[in-house]
Amino acid sequence: MKAAYVKQTGPAESIIYGDLPDPMPGPGQVLVRVKAVSVNPIDTYIRGGLVKAEIPSPFVIGSDLAGVVEPLGPGASQFKVGDRVWASSQGVAARQGSFAELVPVDEKWLFPTPAGVDDRAVAAIALVGITAHLGLFKRAQLRAGEILFVNGGSGGVGSAVVQMAKAVGARVITTAGSDEKTAECRALGADLALNYKTADVDAEIRRFAPQGVNVWWETLREPDFDRTVGLLARGGRMVLMAGREARPLFPVGPFYVKDCSLLGFAMFNSTAEEHRKCAEEINRWLAEGKLKPKIGREFKLSEAAAAHKLQEENTLHKAGTLAGKIVLVP
Question: For residue 32, what are the β-bridge partners?
Fold first, then answer.
């Protein structure tokens, strides 16, 4: 089979696209013929060695996939040959990744693809959708009628947060770096979308939410906690899911006297059963058209190195040339 892999961690240029032996599904596994995959920032961190992970050599990169079930391994019973499926959480915990024509997946990490939903769309929502769902509902307990703020509503995670919050009846404020991107956020359902380069964002937030924001979803690697705490409502919750090396100052006094909560989480710490609960609701919203994954760029699987470079330019270097997810097809 063809695959995108590395022999050791390193820059995007270390990605090799070539032949590897066809894998066979082990006990409790399903062999998936891949139709689409997507790129996440964590994929580039693992490949580059910025996040220490147990990886085999050669190591197939990637977390997300959508495809079709081929042979089942011993004891696998949840799916049948020909089923359309999707998965995330590959490429971690010594598991091979998703950037290959054939991928063996433990069936506990595998979910059915809703009828009528394109493989590229479901691959694009996999990791960011589960991340958004875990943060909004397991951690922040977002409720109908509450006001949520999310930085970067046109990005991968941000666009999922906007749509899921609207799906449960919340009011959403978000930001983006251009008028075009703010228009895209409004099309996703945002009640207030602000161009952070031209608008007085804090003043607009206070005008829209005079009692404060109930849930603040932070995507910045270096949060400004003084600013955020000032904009939170009493009992407000702040969700953190970025900035592994960040060490910003924190205003303890203003935070605790407003009964606020700080909620950090990493998607890969959650269990397969927790992922399944997220996937069931993601599938329902996909089928109902309430969740529309945003694809920013599409590459061939053979162009995996270029796709990783584009992701890094935008995640680490703030190039601003990407809105939405990068999807690759074999």
Answer: 69, 103
CA distances from 294 to 117, 122, 128, 217, 290 (A): 13, 10, 11, 19, 13
- Cα–Cα distance for residue pair 240/238, rounded to 1 Å: 7
Contact between 53 and 89 (Cβ < 8 Å): no
CA nearest neighbour of 110 among 282, 275, 284: 275
What domains appear along the chain, each with residue ranges and CATH number? 2-113+294-329 (3.90.180.10), 128-267 (3.90.180.10)
15-33: per-residue pLDDT in tens? 999 999 999 999 999 999 9
pTM of the model: 0.95
Number of CB atoms found within 10 A of residue 211's CB: 10
| Percent residues over pLDDT 90 in the chain | 88
Report the pLDDT value the prediction gives residue 149, as an integer from 0 to 100: 98
